[in-house]
Amino acid sequence: MARRVLVFAALLAALALATVASLALGAIKVPFGEVIEIIFGEAKGGPNEQIVEALRLPRTVEALIVGAALGTAGAILQGALGNPLASPDVIGVTGGAGFGAILIIILFPGSIALLPVGALVFGLLAATLVFLFAWSGRNRGSVGKVILAGIAMLSLFTAGTTGLLAAYPERAPSAIFFIAGGLTTSGWEELETVWPYFAVGFAFVLFLIRPLDRLALGDDVAASLGSRPQLIRLAAGIAAALLAAASAAIAGLLGFLGLVVPHVVRMAGGSSSHTYVVPASAVGGAALLAAGDTLARTLRAPIEMPVGPFMVLLGVPLFLWLLRKAV
Amino acid sequence: MAASEVPLLAAAGVEVEIGGTPILRGADLVLWPGELVAVVGPNGAGKSTLVRAVSGLQGLSGGEVLWQGRALGEIRGRELSRLRAFVPQRMPVPAGVTVREAVTIGRSSHLKMLGRLTGSDRAAIDASLERAGVGRFAERSLTTLSGGELQRVQIAIGLAQQAPVLIADEPTSQLDLGATIGVAGLLRRLTADGITVLLVVHDLSLALAVADTVVVVSEGETVATGAPAAVLTPERLAAVWGANARLSEHEGRTALHVAWLDAAHQ
Fold it and tell me: Measured between beta carbons, which residues in chain B are less than 8 angstroms from residue A216?
């Protein structure tokens, strides 16, 4: 009990630190104290206030929401499918979103504003196809069927993406930023398009925490308690698809975060109770993405690099260190 | 009929098909308050399917299941969880979950959506831990438990539902002698406390010792129901199990005597 409280407190501290760092650091450094004054509306105006409020705040908020969404999506999928390898990749969302975005980048480079829509639509389409196949015929909604249908859909859309890139190699460079996963400063506008998907996804998750705890004790115990295991899996899949597709729409392919953060949280806290793992994964994911994004735009400032590789650089050593001590 | 004469569970003509294969082809089962009923039968006879079907874990393709006079199909999940608890043979053991947390999950059908545990919920959880004899290791992780301890925890999870009927699917089949004695004694004590127990069991001498009523399932049908000694006769053991065997009971000790190498029955 005490250990998970400590870990959660540490994650909150990391979140606060990453948020302030994300607002303060970049091509122009704003002192931490001034950032805090700006956040609490006590600053007296000036260029720093503009930089923080107009450029960095929307981007930081975006990083926090996307990080929280992917951490949460991974946590509920791993719980619902009872599989440690589950992430938004295995329900096809990442593959579909990638294809949708590359389709816009390569075939409609003039309408790049449609990129989030393309990623969102194809991400949700891929997930819908996975659920349709997994929930038809015998053993509908079984874990094996969901995962296999997801992997098949991932392969299909990845093949489509690769095909597009191979057919138009001269346009491929502009797709790299999306594939590697990166945030941009167009913050509020992008969020205005996708916030309802995040909102519905997070609302679903709130009601899934207790059913997922039941499912952890097996389908029979869940059924004994009056739940329908297949329905819990479907609801978790839908919520994860909404969160992951909306994330991909504004930040590219960052599926790794959804895979690793819940494991880090479980191993560090020594608990797999969803009342702990889900909120802790949200906080941890938000902190990790905000920190990774800060690194990505300060290391070679003013050049911005994609956040994906930096997040992996931060996350993998921590993950491996914890893995060494686990089982 | 007076209310007290309605059985807790009345299942008649239960049929179940799985993937087009008929598993149950007409099974009957009645549970009266306070009794311990053991379902016995050969492998593949449909024992587990029968208890899963009456519990609502397995869809019916025919027949009728009434819980306290109400059709199973009309009872919502949350209500059903307060009519019966189902204890699976062996639940998955998630890492990082303690005994108390698992039993708390067993209480969750009593909570309002997004509601928190109340004092009476906590009391029910504590009582379930104590009754199942797992209170002294309540803070241990599930992954550290022995098979017998884990089976008791599963029963504690079922008890937290506070349902009048506890249904256990082969709770002793993977346990050693001592652990089996422990679980059998626990189930018998629950019956003494007023909980009705429905049990799938392979060990016929155990069924003879603990059950008030035995239901024999053979090839998808219930072929006999009654007091253990009256039902588990040498003739029935020969007809259903193909065994040259008889059961004996003397001063609370039961035994199954088998002519293991009797060629006539092979």
Answer: 92, 94, 97, 105
CA distance A98 to chain B (A): 33
Q: Which residue segment(s) compose the domain that B85 sits in? A: 3-265
Size of interface A-B (CB pairs under 8 A): 81
Domain match, A85 and A12 both: no
ipTM of the modeled complex: 0.94
Residues A193 and A80 in one domain: yes
Return the ∠ at Cα A238 (arms to A233 and A239), rounded to 5°: 100
Cα-Cα-Cα-Cα dihedral of B99, B100, B101, B102, to 10°? 50
From first to last of its 327 residues, what are the pLDDT tens digits of chain A? Answer: 689 999 999 999 999 999 999 999 887 888 888 888 888 887 777 788 888 888 889 999 999 999 999 999 999 999 998 888 888 888 889 899 999 999 998 999 888 788 888 999 999 999 999 999 998 887 777 888 888 999 999 999 999 999 999 999 888 888 888 888 878 766 687 888 889 999 999 999 999 999 999 999 999 999 999 999 989 999 999 999 999 999 988 888 887 889 889 999 998 998 899 999 999 999 999 999 999 999 888 887 777 788 888 888 877 888 788 778 765
Out of B19, B105, B113, whose CB is closest to A217? B105
A223 and A266 both lie in a single domain: no
Cβ contact A269:A7 at 8 Å:
yes
Same-domain status, A213 and A107: yes
Q: Are A266 and A163 in a shared domain?
A: no
Query: For residue A31, is it within any domain?
Result: yes
The closest CB to that of A227, out of B77, B85, B96, belongs to B77
Q: Which residues of A181-204 are buried (b: 16+ CB within 10 A; e: fewer)?
A: bbbeeebeebbeebeebbeebbeb
Residue A122's domain comprises 73-253
- Its sign, for the CA torsion B124, B126, B129, B131, is negative
Note the pTM of the prediction, 2 decimals: 0.90
Residue A51 lies in a domain: no
